[in-house]
């Protein structure tokens, strides 16, 4: 993974961005990123490695963004989410420009979830996020946040 890559600032560009990221890292690093739920364990593992190796978060911001984008794309492909551009209030809340909306209307922040995993460690699993979100049904749209709103989910 190459830190410092240009970040996508439009939800409509996320799918090709993630596809290019996956192609690049699977070829170079042989990471099993296949958009499966189980591949989210790999993301947790990679973030933990970044956490151990980085002195400060800014050293790995690019890689965290790419991994967060991958997590969002798994939600899109496996749980029926769609990429969305956050409105001003959501941007302020999440500290991100882009997130996903689940079929039940709730908006989530996979990019921030990966940052939280980096900052907190094992208590913040992206795989567990998927397991918590998948299959829930509600009829009205809501914005959902966990503890630690800015970088969290």
Features:
50% helix; 153 residues; mainly alpha; single chain
Brief characterization of the structure:
50% of the residues lie in helices and 7% in strands.
Protein described:
The protein is mainly alpha-helical and 153 residues long. It has 6 helices and 3 strands. A 3-stranded antiparallel β-sheet has the order 1-2-3, covered by helices on one side. The longest helix has 19 residues, at 61-79.
| Order of H and E elements | HHHEHEEHH
Rg over CA atoms, rounded to whole Å, is 14 Å
What distance lies between the first and last C-alpha atoms, to the nearest angstrom? Answer: 23 Å
Overall number of strands: 3
The proportion of strand residues reads: 5-15%
What's the overall average pLDDT, rounded? 84
How would you characterize the largest beta sheet? 3 strands, antiparallel
Helical segment tally? 6
Described by the principal axes of the CA atoms, the overall outline is: globular
Low-confidence stretches: 136-152
- Helix content bin: 40-55%
SS-based class: mainly alpha
Going across the biggest sheet, name each strand in turn: 1-2-3
Oligomeric status: single chain
């Amino acid at each position: 993974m190459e830190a410092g890559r240009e970040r996508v600032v439009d939800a409509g560009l996320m799918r090709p961005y993630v596809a290019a990221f996956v192609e690049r890292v699977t070829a170079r690093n042989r990471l099993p990123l296949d958009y499966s739920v189980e591949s989210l364990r790999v993301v947790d593992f990679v973030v933990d490695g970044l956490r151990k190796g980085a002195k400060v978060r800014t050293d790995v911001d690019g890689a965290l963004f790419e991994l967060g984008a991958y997590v969002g794309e798994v939600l899109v492909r496996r749980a029926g989410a769609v990429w969305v551009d956050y409105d001003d209030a959501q941007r302020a809340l999440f500290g991100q420009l882009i997130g996903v909306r689940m079929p039940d209307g709730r908006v989530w922040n996979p990019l921030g979830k990966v940052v939280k995993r980096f900052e907190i460690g094992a208590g913040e699993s992206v795989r567990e996020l998927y397991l918590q979100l998948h299959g829930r049904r509600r009829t009205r749209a809501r914005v959902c946040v966990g503890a630690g709103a800015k970088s969290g989910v």
